[in-house]
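tool=predict chain=A
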Amino acid sequence: MTEISDDVRAVEAALFAAEEALTLNDIAQAVGEDVDVRAALEELTGHYAGRGIGLVERGKRWHFETAPDLAHVLRREREEPRKLSRAATETLAIIAYHEPVSRAEIESIRGVQISKGTLDVLMEAGWVRPAGRRETPGRPLIYATTPVFLSHFGLETRRDLPGLDDLKAAGLLDPVDTALEELELESAEQDD
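tool=predict ok
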């Protein structure tokens, strides 16, 4: 086994401990100005060649990364289903169909207050984002959907959202609500 100098070990340790890739100057500051950082990097690059990890330079920054031929071994594609509460689902639908929309407008449409956590869950999922402030008294924050929302639901634009007829045909609307809506329409027609 080849003996590795303390300088090379120091550079190696600095790179392993770093949270992000390091420039030559960053490494020199970490290990001391008297260390020949370039020589140490060359030695480490050779030492790690052909192993499970390698020392690489990207954009004048150095870091360790998984060997390209082994990346598939470590890749874990796990779809985590997101279970949204009814409140979150309703809120997401209101934002998608009425954006940009304020919290007060969401509450007015839903008929109940929403908790801050509901919007937080939607923003954490990456489906909703703050879209500025409404130019009204109090300047309330308004919300809109994101490209991640469109991608997740397989939409190219918001215009691809299903319409009322599509939702009825898919059986996604409550039949009681639909029946009440039809009765209200009949009643309004009779009053005319």
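The chain is about 50% helix and 15% strand. The first helix runs from residue 6 to 17.
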